[in-house]
């Protein structure tokens, strides 16, 4: 249910539209959960969530997985610290792959999450083969985000709720960076010292924002009232 809820909320925030997907490890197994390829992201229900083995075989569900399933599988294979992966086509984020000599940097306080860097993957095509997935996982390395040239981005996190919160803050940070550039000014990203100063209690912050967006989603009819979704 968390994947379905997070997907609908990301549509509400304009981060997902007709494409993009979230995957997450199925606790206690070597399998993942991911939405089907064709169901509307705005109407994803728990029954639309597939269970897939690490070799790409659908073991639960009668629909096909997304074309870019290998994007998720290859990242999860090499990053045991990652529990959830988001692939989306955030316009503001991919804009930073279309400018010469401009690197998206941590500008706002919550962008401390990406202090280690935001690399750009050079392959703009669909990540639809195991080798392409491995190449993208290599570009991502130990980081929590990567851009995909002229295509989109990926985020990785320790939970689905953490992934959702990161997506909200990634969009905020990209907007802020672009506003500085549009003003014709030189960006002043957070310094290492400042990032130490603003780093807070992530667990508390994720729980706070997840609760806020869940309640907003239910109030606006994006999520059913009877969905019980915890952090």
Descriptive account of the structure:
The structure is a single chain. Helix 1 (2-12) runs parallel beside helix 5 (160-182), helix 2 (69-78) packs across helix 4 and helix 5 (160-182) packs across helix 7 (202-219). The longest helix has 23 residues, at 160-182. The mean pLDDT is 95. The chain has 231 residues and is of the alpha+beta class. It has seven helices and eight strands. The protein starts with a helix and ends in a 12-residue tail after the last helix. It has an eight-stranded mixed beta sheet with strand order 4-3-2-1-5-8-7-6, sandwiched between helices. 39% of the residues are buried.
What's the SSE blueprint?
Elements: H1 2-12, E1 21-25, E2 31-35, E3 49-53, E4 58-60, H2 69-78, E5 84-88, H3 91-95, E6 120-121, H4 130-140, E7 145-148, E8 152-157, H5 160-182, H6 192-198, H7 202-219
Parallel strand pairs: 6-7
Antiparallel strand pairs: 1-2, 1-5, 2-3, 3-4, 5-8, 7-8
Count every beta strand, where a strand is a DSSP E run of 2 or more residues: 8
Helix content: 25-40%
Strand content: 15-25%
> How widely separated are the two ends?
11 Å
Global outline? globular
Count of discrete alpha- or pi-helical segments spanning 4 or more residues: 7
Radius of gyration: 17 Å
Widest sheet: strand ordering: 4-3-2-1-5-8-7-6
Order of helices and strands: HEEEEHEHEHEEHHH
Q: What's the mean pLDDT score?
A: 95
Largest β-sheet summary: 8 strands, mixed
Find the structural class using helix and strand composition: alpha+beta
Which residues form runs of ≥5 with pLDDT under 50? none
